[in-house]
Amino acid sequence: MIRRARPSDAPAIHALVHRYAGRDLLLPRPLTDIYERIRDFWVAVDGGQVVGCAALRIWWHDLAEVRSLAVAPEAEGHGYGARLVDAVAAEAARFGVSNLFALTRIPGWFGRNGFQEIDRAVLYHKVWGDCASCPKRLACDEVAVVRPLRPGAAERLANPDPRVVARVAHIVPPRAEGTTGSPALTVLPTFVHLDEP
User: How far apart are alpha carbons 64 and 96 in whole angstroms?
Assistant: First the structure.
């Protein structure tokens, strides 16, 4: 079952995030931060236990992020990750947001769930808002992906005006050495291994 998170879910969400933060797959989040942002979270529940979580952050009138997306290893392979993303996407669409993005190390999983890779420079709201304080800002290994929530909505992100990208290029840190993918497709860790073998 996928449902909105409740304050009583915060310790379980924190445990999931902490589990993957300890493996350097998510940034750590203090429990107090999760309580403060509990309204942003959705959870996957199986047998009365929280086995997955995802949060929505709205960055601009047409741009929102799925973040803190994690599924417990013992619950992988049951589609919880995709259903959590769908719940977050529906919530973003309810607010009139037209694009949902994520920053990930497994763009293939997102590709199978309606996302396409984009240049992270077009996510300058996110870069300015989060990257300056990120401990990985100079060695980031993530790929930016976007899922349109309305037909054609991601066109400006997938094919950005080169003048816009040039204006913000100086704030986008270089891709970490030894990582794959386009050199312009990176930012903060927000996603962990879900259903991919």
Answer: 10
pTM beyond cutoff 0.90: no
Q: How many CA atoms lie within 13 A of 108 on its CB side?
A: 7
Taking alpha carbons only, the member of 44, 20, 185 closest to residue 110 is 185
Quick check: 118 and 185 in contact, CB under 8 A? yes
The residues facing 57 across adjacent strands are: 65
Among candidate residues 68, 83, 95, the one with its CA nearest the CA of residue 149: 95
- For residue 108, list its beta bridge partners: none
Task: Give the DSSP letter string of 38-106.
Answer: GGGEEEEEETTEEEEEEEEEEEETTEEEEEEEEE-GGGTTSSHHHHHHHHHHHHHHHTT--EEEEEES-
Give the tens place of pLDDT for each residue, 120-175.
Answer: 778 876 665 666 666 666 667 788 899 999 999 999 888 888 887 777 666 665 55
Q: Beta-carbon neighbour count of residue 63 at 10 Å?
A: 21
43: which residues sit within 8 A by CB, 6+ positions away?
2, 3, 4, 5, 9, 12, 13, 50, 52, 53, 84
Residue 157 phi, psi (nearest 5): -85, -40
CATH code of 2-171, in short, is: 3.40.630.30
